[in-house]
Amino acid sequence: MKPNILIVEDESAIADTIQYALETEGFETCILSSGEQVMQTLSKGSFHLVILDVGLPDINGFELCKKIRKSHTLPIIFLTARSDEIDRVVGLEIGGDDYIIKPFSPRELSARVRAVLRRALPNILSAGETSCDPIPIQDGAFQIDKAKRRISYFGSVPDLSKYEYDLMQLFISHPGQVFARDHLMDKVWDEPGMSMDRTVDAHIKNIRAKLKQIKPDLDPIVTHRGLGYALKEDL
Ligand code: CA
Question: Going from the N-terminus, what domains does the chain have, and what CATH number goes with each?
Answer without folding.
Answer: 4-125 (3.40.50.2300), 135-231 (1.10.10.10)
